[in-house]
Every structure is written in C-alpha cells, then in structure tokens.
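Late entry, zinc ion complex.
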Amino acid sequence: MTNDADKAHSKDKIDVSVGGTVLERYFTGKTEAAYVADNTLFLTADYVNLIAFETSDGLVLVDTGMVEAPKIFDEIRKKTDAPLHTVIITHGHMDHAFGLNPWLEAGEKPRIIAHENMTRRFRTYMRLAPMNIHINRVQFGMEADIHWPDKEEQFPWPDTTYREQLTIRVGGETFELYHHKGETDDSTWVWAPERGIVCTGDLYVGMLPYCGNPQKVQRYAEEWADGLEAIASVGAELLLPGHGHPIKGKDEIRKRCLITAETLRSIVKQTLEGLNAGKTHEDIMASIKIPEHLAKEPYVDPLYDKPEFIARAIIRRYGGWWNGFSSQLLPAKMADQSKEIIRLAGGIEPLVDRARELIDSDPALACHLAEWAALGAPDNRSAHECVIDVFNKRAESEIALIARGILSHAVRKSQKALATLE
Ligand SMILES: [Zn+2]
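Prediction complete; structure with ligand written out below:
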C-alpha cells in the first residue's frame, strides 16, 4: 500500500465530517492518475472514479468516464503503456460507461465485460434519448446541451456478459465480478482477492444510496442492501468506490457498508409496514425516520437522494401509483384546479401574499400556493415572481441534489415565463 491511500483516507475523513455537497464529496482531489496500492491506478474525472489494475498481461480498467475520457486516457498513459486487456463497466450510466473511444482510437482491442442487463439498458437509452436529456436537465438544474447517444455505434456494447457471478483471470490474477441490483439493474462490483481491493461501482458512494430518484426508472433498495452486505463480507483492505474517496481498512469498510445497508433496510421495513397498515402514500412518507444510530453517520447523509423518495420508489415497486385520495384517481387538470382556487380566494394576491407569509414557517405549503398562482394565472408577473422567490428559498434549504434540482426547475420555468411577458 502506498502513501496515496493513506492520504485519500484521511482526506475522506475530513470531507465526510464537514458534510459538503455531493460534488464536494465526489471530488477526491485525484485528477491525475495516482497509485493507491501496488500496481493500482486511481483517478477522478467527470466526477467518477476510474481504476486501472496493472497486470502482467495488461490493464484491467474498471469504468471509463465520459466527457473527460481523452484526459483519462492521457493520465493513465502517463503512468503505463501496457495494453488495455479488459474493461469492466460497473453499470451503463453515462459517466461510467461512455469513455472508451480514446482507447479504441489508439488501437486497443480490450475485452468489454458487463452485466447482461447493460445491453437492454442501452437499447432503452436509444428509444428514450430525448426524455433522458429532458429529465437530466431538470435533475441537474441546467439548460445546457446534454449529449445522449441514440445510435447503435455510440454505445460500448459488451462482448462478455454474465448473470450472477463471473471470475476472470488476467496476468495470473483473479478478478471476481458480482451482480447486485442497486441504482441500476445492471450493477457489477469487482473483488480482486490477491490485492484485497474491492471496486464497488455506485453500490457504495459514501452517502445515502440513490434509490428513490423521482424521475427515473425503478431502483432496488433491498438488493442494494444485499450487495453492500456481500461487499462487507469479502474482507477488503481497500474499497474504491464509483464516486468519492477510497476507504482503507477492513473494519472501516465493513462498518460503512453494513451501516449503509441497515439504513436501506430500515426504510424498506418502514415503508412495507405502512403499506400493510393501509396508510396513504403521504402518511408513509411523513412517517419515515432513519434511526439515530444510523442517521448520525456522515456516509449515509441524504446528499443526493432523500429517504422519502426511496420510500416512494418502494411503494411504486410493490404497489400502484394511486396515492389514496379519490379525487386524484381521475383528477381535474392542475391548471383548472388552480383557476378555481384563485377564484375562491378572490384573486391572485391572497395566494401570493400567503405564500410569502409561509415561506419560512411552512415552505411546502408556500410552494403549493405559489404554484397554484402561476398555473392558474400564467400571464401574471407577481405569480411568477412569487414562484421564483418561494422555490428558490425551498431549494436552498434542501441538501439533496435531486430535490434541489427539481425544485429549482420551477424557478427556471417561471423565469422563462417572465421573459416572455416582458
Ligand atoms: Zn455513478
């Protein structure tokens, strides 16, 4: 083990204790390829971690990056000119899977290994490229062009897939690949037993697992917990996550994986109990509470996703979408409801004034009032100004990146509406 791993670990401790945003936690400081263990290169680019294992038969690369792929290629090539033997893609998300081109353009012909579901994921991406561009703009709060592949030749199709477990030997070394569903249904984590190193992909990222994303396809909380427990059981001395800082030390790795798994199991248990008790979705979400001995651990901070969103995803998985309020089974359009609320209130001003009054004491209710005002009176300036102020304030108070992004989407919509009114 080199000094780098020690430094990474102590930096990790500092960052984790001070909280910080998702991107601060993701940033390991290793933008140049650095050895974190013997013959093990690690770097962070595109906010994702890349690992290159040097073996006597060439490199085994875990994940590939995306936009910064040329830089990743250059960085690894600064350290080694060994051929690229094998690429393992931990899951088909853009930031992990779409960085192979510089290697291929340089003439490398690696074997590409992934879970068998990654192929189906890519086929879905091809069918839903515009949708994915839209929901990612909302999630990350940006209007910028997002590149989303939609042509067959743009995808890193694996040539080797597996279903449950695959053991490969490269340069006389063993790499064990395991599948557990988590954020995706095509997740792979990699255990290198001779090195004592585990690469978790996004099954461990040092914060509350992202399994409740409001706009995205089903996530798998229980299987995610299974995966974390399996990772905890291998006895790794170094954990290299898909995002964020490496973790060193068998006990620390085990503890963090098990606490994270227990957190997920607690949310699942509370949600299923709520469903069995016949509670409405809103009552289930309001009742979710992370037990204190788990919530105090910074590596389950809800920085990206929220426990309430995870509960919703569990409800969706096991139940239907109807939320328990009969009027919402076949509802009037929100704009029509809003117009009627404005009419009953005697105009827009009472809604706007009340929203501003409630902005601190009940921001959720303030958001409803502001949204009704803007939906019911889309040409009214003060309604949109109210949305901007109320949703900005609410977004600022949220620590979960996804919640902030979607709340500030309302702000951007009203800013656009205001621009057209001028
Ligand atoms: Zn990721």
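Residues 48, 93, 95-96, 202, 242-243 surround zinc ion (CB under 6 Å). Will revisit in the morning.
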